[in-house]
Amino acid sequence: MPVVIGEIPIKPGRRISVAPMMDWTDRHCRTFHRQITRHTWFYTEMVTTGALLFGDVARHLDFNEVEHPLALQLGGSEPADLARSAKLGEQWGYDEINLNCGCPSERVQKGAFGACLMAEPQLVADCVKAMRDAVSIDVTVKHRVGIDDSESYDFVRDFVGAIADAGCRTFVVHARNAILKGLSPKENREIPPLKYDYAYRLKRDFPDLEIIINGGIKTLEEIDLHLQQVDGVMLGREAYHNPYLMAAFDARYYGEPGSPKSRAEVLDAMLPYIRDQLQRYGKGAADAIGGGLRLNSITRHMLGLMTGLPGARHFRQTLSDSKKLASGDPALLLEALARMPAALAAD
């Protein structure tokens, strides 16, 4: 069994969550984030049904128990394949299955899933129903407010209505259109204008559904404003680049008493996890998941911990030093912390 870091949180509501982000929100990133916030919902990177049904299941689904509450995001468009994959997710202990209807990348489009599924609401409804019939945990959908030149609110309203008829009760709304041709995934996160009012209208039109808003949200003040209109807020890249923002979440949004861990305590809490993972899966480990785990596989997610503080650049430089990383010594975290001003290092 994976090492357990700290106390496993109870399953709270999805008031605050961190978005699934390819190449970023892997199990190491999520374990690190869990040292900062106990109750925020985390989502895996998108895992395709093909990867689960024909690939290494353990490599894609293994996680640390401390990551709960944790959702598995699936990519696919065949109801039977999604049902089998959702069942695997439930068997591995995930708290939720989320269907990706929002990714605009051409690679995903070639597989006929992601954002292009918004053009086929009945197919999405069939997929949701198949998964709900296969599992007892929640099945949710993450989607955009439109695709290409579909600018009307009616488009997303009708999409949500059709999926809700199939039994889905939770929708994560990335409040931008997805441009399927001509924009990269990065550009799709920045160029299409934000339409927060569409998510707000969905909540008014479907008051019994759980509507979670996503896209361009960076501050606590912005989160507070959105929560006056919808049920939850999902953060994306801000949570990755400025992770200590999440230190305020448990008290502010979940009523958790006490103070969060300091940045130094977060680093200290990660040391046993890093040592355990390197011993289990590091270079030369016979049973390595993915094989050849290196120190940088974990520490790369921690570079933003000191964002906004004096000395943050020195902290990042130390954690990025290729020679020091090659040594594989987790004490590198303590060396990086020592380069911060003393008062901040103890904060």
From TrEMBL:
PANTHER family: FMN-LINKED OXIDOREDUCTASES SUPERFAMILY PROTEIN. Gene3D superfamilies: 1.20.120.1460, Aldolase class I. It is an enzyme of class 1 (oxidoreductase). Its cofactor is FMN. InterPro entries: Aldolase_TIM, DUS-like_FMN-bd, DUS_fam, DusA, tRNA_hU_synthase_CS. It catalyses: 5,6-dihydrouridine(20) in tRNA + NAD(+) = uridine(20) in tRNA + NADH + H(+); 5,6-dihydrouridine(20) in tRNA + NADP(+) = uridine(20) in tRNA + NADPH + H(+); 5,6-dihydrouridine(20a) in tRNA + NAD(+) = uridine(20a) in tRNA + NADH + H(+); 5,6-dihydrouridine(20a) in tRNA + NADP(+) = uridine(20a) in tRNA + NADPH + H(+). The active site is at 103 (proton donor). Its EC number is 1.3.1.91. It comes from the Bacteria. Keywords: Flavoprotein, FMN, NADP, Oxidoreductase, RNA-binding, tRNA processing, tRNA-binding. GO terms for molecular function: tRNA-dihydrouridine20 synthase activity. The record marks 100, 186, 189, 313, 316 as: Interacts with tRNA. Signal peptide: none annotated. Residues 18-332 form the DUS-like FMN-binding domain. This is tRNA-dihydrouridine(20/20a) synthase. PROSITE patterns: UPF0034. Belongs to the dus family. Belongs to the Dus family. DusA subfamily. FMN binds at residues 20-22, 73, 142, 174, 214-216, 236-237. Catalyzes the synthesis of 5,6-dihydrouridine (D), a modified base found in the D-loop of most tRNAs, via the reduction of the C5-C6 double bond in target uridines. Specifically modifies U20 and U20a in tRNAs. The gene is dusA.
